[in-house]
């Protein structure tokens, strides 16, 4: 018999990519199955609550026939979007550390260390960036070429800034150009972008504060 959860996961391959980006160690089939079971249990719970409410308030209990599937569909959609929440959380955490991590590697490279050694030292740092680099290092130690390991890290990184830095570094490794110069230029661009983001956020806060004072 065909597994319906496997069919659903196959029909929506983005589920697998989201689980990898969210670092949720679960197979797509199992994730769909878990979401479905959670939706069914939640649907039964909310339907029972609605039943007791109708019983007390005197509502028409026939409405439960269409309320149950609506509850199930809404809850299933909610559970299926849990990786998106985790991805956004990881993205915020990684982008807080992007400049520090990039500068750490740049200092190591400028001191004469090979890129892999700099990456290995960065993996020992605390925080989510250290874990991210640690995964790349472990993959390389298991026999994956460094360019391929970086390609995998780029594909499943939730942070656009990290992806851009690693992509340009990887291009430098493939073409044989100076990794230090590439990394330095990219970090400057990232810093300029963050300064612009801070200024824009400050303008929004000023607008909200003025609106609040007017009220």
Outline the structure in words.
- This protein is 82% helix and 0% strand.
- With 215 residues, it is mainly alpha-helical.
- Helix 2 (14-22) crosses helix 5, helix 5 packs across helix 6 (115-122) and helix 5 crosses helix 9 (160-175).
- It is built from ten helices and no strands.
How would you sum up this structure in a few lines?
The protein has 215 residues and is mostly helical. Helices cover 82% and strands 0% of the residues. The protein is built from ten helices and no strands.
The gross shape turns out to be flat
The largest β sheet comes out as: none
List low-pLDDT spans. none
Provide a count of the helices: 10
Q: How much is the average pLDDT?
A: 80
Note the main attributes of this structure:
mainly alpha; 215 residues
SSE blueprint:
Layout: H1 4-11, H2 14-22, H3 28-57, H4 64-80, H5 82-110, H6 115-122, H7 128-141, H8 146-155, H9 160-175, H10 179-214
